Amino acid sequence: LVDDYGHHPTEVAATIRAVRDGWPERRLVMVYQPHRYSRTHDLYDDFVDVLSEVDFLLMLDVYAAGEKPIRGADSRNLCRSIRQRGQLDPVLVKKTEELRTILNDVLQDGDILLMQGAGNIGTLCRQLAVQGVQDA
Asked: What is the pTM of this model?
């Protein structure tokens, strides 16, 4: 279980690369929470590129940080754009309460779970570390 504050495509890419270098034989499962609609909008294509590099992607809703939504710059559209590349079929997690159950179904022995973003995802990661994923 890796918790990382990265919320810019360059930071996300560096973390993915570090995990791949450290555990090249392991499947990389990522839970990502975009931070701010403006950042998602401005760096949309870069996010699609970098998030397509994991083996399995679960996407939380954008952490707005007080911003109003920007049309097209949301998690649903990010998932759609990543899916259209044909490499991944991202899972959009609409309710954070469902994350533990979804992870229980997705995770396999030996997987690396990377949780990344600058919103409340760090709290979710700490909860998973304490409670575990099994028996959700």
From this structure: 0.94
Phi, psi of 118 (to 5 degrees): -115, 10
Paired with 30 in beta bridges are 57, 114
Max alpha carbon distance in the chain (Å)?
A: 41
| Residue labelled with tokens 């990010």 | 78
Phi first, then psi: what are they for 19, rounded to 5°? -65, -45
Do 120 and 63 touch, CB atoms closer than 8 A?
yes
d(CA 81, CA 50): 12
- Read off the tokens for 71: 């049309």
Looking at every residue in the chain, the average pLDDT score rounds to 94
Q: How many CB atoms lie within 10 A of CB 121?
A: 24
Query: Mind listing the domains of the chain with CATH numbers?
Result: 2-131 (3.90.190.20)
Burial of 47 (0-12, 13-18, 19+ CB in 10 A): buried
For the four alpha carbons of 111, 63, 95 and 82, in that order, the dihedral sign comes to: negative
In percent, how much of the chain has pLDDT > 90?
86
d(CA 60, CA 115): 10
